[in-house]
């Protein structure tokens, strides 16, 4: 076992082998979560990620809420909502909404798939470090669960004004929220790196690809 | 005496968490990320982002967040009047949630980050575990302030019936969105290891201010 350091207080520690399922190791000095117990998690992560991606695509493409104001029917998808802000010349805000509800969740799930799918078969994915780093940067900006609460609040606000009809995307966003919460518990960065250490390089990764190109040139 | 990685000249890779002697390499041998003992310029960047968030907090609360135009006149609402509207219309539980997300969380973030920065600057040794916990709480709750931005977005998109009612976003919500983003960036810039560095400071200068 090699020593590790707590990422929040820099305490030098020797990691212990965790055996009980769902057990977690915490830093004795500052209480930060260090690592979890990980056995056969990649498969679960993969299943949840595919399910979450399906829900996300559905949630983006269908209307979230419909509104009936005295015979005038209006409904909106996430993209329509961002576009409405854009039309009101609030481009920055439109970008922020698009980024936090569509682009970042899409990127997050895509990146997890990119990292975990080859690892699950025992291969090292291309650009693992770069994708992993971007994933860590993107994670705080994916705010699906906040958006779900936002939809609920606007439903209540609008119900005084008109008849509100929850759309199909509403349920998808709700389910997505649960899946993302489960994923964030399952994905354990140290475990992913351990899986990477144990995996073998892809046949055309790095040197092999360069040699292949050189041979053709 | 506790032993930190920095006191042994070991740097933790920010990307993959691997420990590497800083004397041997400037980049992580496993993933290639640049190595530092502490986030470079953490305190300075955190102060700058925090102060800009504090400045924008005023227009976010004072300016109009959303304007409702109808044949009966124009109605303007701010962050607080939105909460009051929910409260008066009987949705108390929701009023509390919105109040927490749009008033309590931003205030808590600005005040506690200031406290963390000041206590690190004074090299305080008190309540270090509690301060670590406070920092983790900030990372967790910061995103929930985006609630108001989403509510305004959805209302603007849905209520666009020209003859009856039109909702237009006000300048206040832009300022509020900026407060949320800036305070999240400030939290990310802060290096929680500085809280503990008073006990065993890194061996050479350049770790922080």
From TrEMBL, chain A:
Transmembrane portions of the chain: 45-65, 92-120, 141-162, 168-187
One Pfam family from the record:
PqiA
Q: Does the keyword rRNA-binding apply?
A: no
| InterPro entries assigned to the protein according to its UniProt record, in alphabetical order | PqiA-like (IPR007498)
Keyword list, A-Z: Membrane, Transmembrane, Transmembrane helix
Q: What is this protein called?
A: Paraquat-inducible protein A
- Native source organism of the sequence: Propionivibrio dicarboxylicus
Automatic annotation (TrEMBL), chain B:
> Per UniProt, which keywords does this protein have?
Cell inner membrane, Cell membrane, Membrane, Transmembrane, Transmembrane helix
InterPro entries membership: PqiA-like, PqiA-PqiB_transport
Q: Does the keyword Transmembrane apply?
A: yes
Indicate where this protein is primarily found: membrane
This protein's GO cellular component annotations are: plasma membrane
Transmembrane ranges, per UniProt, are 46-66, 92-120, 141-161, 167-190
Q: Which cell locations does it reside in?
A: Cell inner membrane
What is the protein name for this chain?
A: Paraquat-inducible protein A
- Species for this entry: Propionivibrio dicarboxylicus
């Amino acid at each position: 076992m090699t020593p590790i350091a707590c990422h929040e207080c820099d305490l030098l520690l020797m990691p212990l082998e965790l055996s009980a399922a769902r057990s977690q190791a915490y830093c004795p000095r500052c209480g930060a979560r260090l690592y979890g117990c990980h056995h056969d998690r990649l498969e679960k992560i993969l299943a949840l990620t595919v399910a979450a991606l399906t829900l996300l695509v559905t949630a983006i493409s269908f209307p979230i809420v419909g509104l009936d104001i005295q015979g005038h029917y209006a409904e909106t998808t996430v993209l329509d909502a961002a576009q409405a802000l854009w039309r009101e010349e609030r481009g920055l805000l439109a970008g922020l909404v698009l980024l936090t509800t569509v682009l970042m969740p899409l990127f997050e799930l895509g990146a997890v798939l990119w990292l975990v799918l080859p690892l699950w078969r025992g291969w090292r994915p291309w650009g693992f470090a770069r994708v992993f780093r971007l994933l860590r940067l993107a994670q705080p900006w994916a705010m699906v669960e906040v958006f779900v609460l936002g939809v609920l609040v606007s439903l209540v606000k609008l119900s005084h004004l008109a008849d509100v009809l929850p759309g199909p995307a509403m349920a998808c966003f709700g389910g997505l929220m649960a899946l993302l919460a489960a994923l964030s518990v399952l994905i354990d960065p140290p475990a992913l790196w351990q899986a990477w250490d144990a995996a073998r390089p892809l046949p055309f990764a790095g040197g092999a690809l360069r040699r292949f190109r050189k041979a053709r040139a | 005496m506790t032993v930190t990685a920095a006191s042994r000249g070991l740097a933790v890779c920010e990307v993959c968490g691997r420990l590497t002697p800083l004397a041997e390499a400037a980049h992580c041998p496993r993933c290639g990320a640049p190595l530092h003992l502490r986030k470079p310029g953490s305190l300075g960047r955190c102060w700058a982002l925090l102060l800009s968030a504090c400045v924008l907090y005023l227009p976010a609360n004072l300016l109009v967040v959303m304007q409702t135009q109808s044949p009966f006149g124009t109605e303007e609402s701010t962050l607080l009047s939105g909460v009051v509207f929910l409260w008066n219309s009987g949705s108390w539980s929701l009023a509390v949630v919105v109040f927490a997300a749009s008033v309590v969380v931003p205030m808590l973030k600005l005040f506690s980050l200031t406290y963390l920065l000041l206590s690190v600057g004074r090299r305080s040794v008190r309540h270090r575990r509690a301060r670590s916990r406070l920092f983790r709480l900030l990372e967790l709750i910061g995103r929930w302030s985006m609630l108001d931005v989403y509510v305004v977005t959805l209302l603007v998109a849905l209520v666009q019936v020209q003859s009856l009612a039109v909702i237009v976003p006000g300048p206040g919500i832009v300022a509020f969105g900026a407060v949320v983003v800036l305070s999240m960036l400030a939290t990310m810039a802060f290096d929680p290891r500085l809280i503990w560095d008073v006990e065993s400071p890194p061996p050479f200068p350049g770790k922080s201010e």
